[in-house]
Amino acid sequence: MRLPPWFDRFMAPGSDRSAELARALEARGVAARTLELSGGRFVAAWPKEGLRDPRYRIKVVTAHHDRVPGTPGALDNSAACLQLVDFLSESRGAFNTLVIFTDREELGSARPARPDGPGAARQGSFELGKAFSGMDIGSPMVFPLDVTGRGDALVLSRASETLAARADGALRRSAVERVAAETDAMACSAARLMAGRAPVLRAAVPFGEDLGFMLAGVPALTVTVLPRAEAEALAGLGTLPAWASLAEPGDRAPGTWSRLHGPDDTVDQYGDEAFGVVSRFLARLAAWRAPSSVGRR
Predict the structure, then answer these.
(1) Distance CA 18, CA 26 (A)
(2) pLDDT of residue 169
(3) Which residues are 220's β-sheet partners?
(4) Taking the model in full, what pTM does it have?
(5) What count of Cα atoms within 13 Å lies in the side-chain half-sphere of residue 117?
């Protein structure tokens, strides 16, 4: 793949990645705003020539720009950042679609594996979810892109099912059930949008920044990409077994995940198929006019 010059600077060790994203967008004529929340730096932008209508819900597409210290972080999560910069600068007529590059997703040992994990409230997505009420975007639906640079199948997370089963005080049970139901409805809508355009599977995916959003009361559906054989194997497992955790991948985890959080997470893992799948997904999602009642009870 041919990668743009700004991406080399973005990938460089010690790079100020939020600043590089802001500069890349500015160079492409996309107005961006940098937000600072609890020690994290977030970059928000609307697509060029985008349309807005308050009668419909805002779709917020996110990608965390931080990476595990000392690792290249190409799949996790630089690919999604590159895909969203291209989307922001090349899309035409995107409807009610806001992009936010998020921070503080990779929290090391504090990264939660469960809804009651100790790091949940430290996630940047939790702080951002709480800040949405002051951003004039109503009650948004969030679609985090995570590990989207390798493979040909779109995988929609089933994490909301785990959240619904573990109402434990982080949110009232009624709020947990609402967020889980809305997230499930989002997954059904996303699958319909992509029907016939790529293999689409629902699978148990480890919690990422979707957890922070959901604990802040905001529905969030993680979207990832895997080679089809890996995606089908994962989807066939039902709930996520311990060996499939990103923190403890084990020998039977999807091969793509075995490259994460280490020196093998490099740009030579990228594939045109994955970038094509994500491009089609973003185009369909951006065109979707989601009524205010989607997923609500």
Answers:
(1) 12
(2) 54
(3) 142
(4) 0.91
(5) 22
- Name 203's bridge partners: 157
User: What is the Cα–Cα distance from 104 to 127, expressed in whole angstroms?
Assistant: 10
Q: How far is CA 203 from CA 16, 223, 273, in A?
A: 34, 10, 20
Could you write out the DSSP letters of every residue in the chain? ----HHHHHHHSTT--HHHHHHHHHHHTT--EEEEEETTEEEEEEPPTT-B--TTBPPEEEEEE----TTS--IIIIIHHHHHHHHHHHH-SS-BSEEEEEE-----GGG--SSTT-TTGGGSHHHHHHHHGGGTT--S-EEEEB-S-SS-SEEEEE-HHHHHHHT--SSS-HHHHHHHHHHHHHHHHHHHHHTTTTS-EEEE-----HHHHHHHTT--B--EEEE-HHHHHHHHTT-SPPGGG-SSS-TTTS-TTGGGTTSTT--GGG--HHHHHHHHHHHHHHHH---BTTTT--
Tokens of 289: 């006019």
Domains of the chain: 5-287 (3.40.630.10)
Residue whose token pair is 């434990």:
168
- CB 291: neighbour CB atoms within 10 A? 10
d(CA 83, CA 170): 33
Question: Pseudo-torsion of CA 102, 106, 110, 114, nearest 10°?
Answer: 70
Residue 103: how many other CB atoms lie within 10 Å: 26
Q: Output b/e per residue, 75-87; b: 16+ Cβ within 10 A.
A: bbbbbbbbbbbbb
Mean pLDDT, contiguous 10-residue spans, the chain (297 residues): 94 97 97 93 94 94 96 97 97 93 76 45 88 93 98 95 64 81 95 96 92 92 97 83 49 83 96 98 96 60
pLDDT at 16: 97
Compute how many other C-beta atoms are within 10 angstroms of the C-beta atom of residue 13. Answer: 8
